[in-house]
Amino acid sequence: MTKLKIDQPAPDFKLKDQNGDFHRLSDYKGKWVLVYFYPKDNTPGCIKEACAIRDNFPAFEKLNITVLGISSDTVESHKKFAQKYKLPFTLLADDKKEVVKKYGVWGKKKFMGIEYEGISRTSFLINPQGKIVKIYENVKPAIHAKEVLDDLSLLINK
Q1: What SS3 state is found at 115?
Q2: What would the pLDDT profile of 129-150 be if each residue is shown by its tens digit?
Q3: Could you say which of 25, 34, 46, 126 is catalytic?
Q4: How far is residue 126's CA from residue 69's CA, in Å, rounded to a whole number?
Q5: Residue 152 falls inside a structural domain
Q6: Residue 101 sits in which domain range?
Q7: Model-level pTM?
C-alpha cells in the first residue's frame, strides 16, 4: 500500500462519474480539489459525510474547490446515491480498486471484531499545482466538510 505524503504530486487517475462520464484529476489542474474516499454508498457514515458536504456545498463553490468523492461502488450505485441525497458534486466509481490502492486507502479494516478489506475514510486536499497539501485520515463524517473549508480558507488567505 502506497503511503502518499504532503507536497508530493497527487497521482492522476481516470474514472467514470455517476453519469458515466470520465474524469481525470489532471482535468482540474489550476483548481483546488478535495478528493475524498469513502467506504460505501448508502451506509450511515457515508450518507452523513456526503450530506455534510452537500449542505456546505455553497461554501465549497465560493472558494472554487472541486469535490470528487470516490468509492469502489459502481456507476449505477453512485447515480442512485447522488439522486437520493441530491448530491451536487461528482462521485467517481473505482470498481476495479485501482485508485484506492494508488492512494493507499485500501486495506485491512475491522468492524465488530471481523477483519475485511475495504476503503479507509481518507481525504486529500490538492492545490492548483496538483500537489497534496493536506491528508485527512480517520475522517469524522459529520464535521469533515467544515474542517476542509476552515483549512482551505486559511490556505487561500495566506
Answers
A1: strand
A2: 999 999 999 889 899 999 999 9
A3: 46
A4: 13
A5: yes
A6: 14-156
A7: 0.93
